[in-house]
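Standup notes
- DV: blocked on the single-chain target, sequence here:
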Amino acid sequence: MTVHAAGLGRHYEDFVVGDVYQHPLGRTISEADNTWFTLLTMNTNQNHFNAHFAERAPVGKIIVNSGLTVAIVLGLSVIDVSQNALMNLGWDEIRLTHPVFVGDTVYAESVVLEKRESKSRPYAGIVTCRTRGLNQDGDEIMSWRRTVMVYRRDAPHDKGYFPRAKDGPLTP
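- DV (later): unblocked, structure below
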């Protein structure tokens, strides 16, 4: 029997400049998602939660809160870019290029722009990617550059965290 230790994502050595990751999940945004996020973050712009008000705006309907869309695109990219990161170092050049509406499905992809070993942490490296979000029609809805510090494959910090069962190993 082989036990596959808990783990997911890429380590510093796995990144190659120029590689593109089409992140595997998509996320359809519901009215509840948008309303809850808007109220939770105290965003009082009525274009995000008042259909009657939004009908009078140039687009004529509720626009999804851009903070929610940024959070979803970021989340979609974690599995490939920062699952094994110990910290985000920065976001730059954030662009919101197309409105997002309730019912849109959001996807994300990232390209590796740069990588270098960390000078202060020998167990990690620094990776910079350009990430963009796409809607179901292939329209780019947003983009940014993000720099993360990612564990190297031999770093001890992200290993051995799964608890050992008190009653022994799982058997068939």
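- Follow-up: The radius of gyration is 20 Å.
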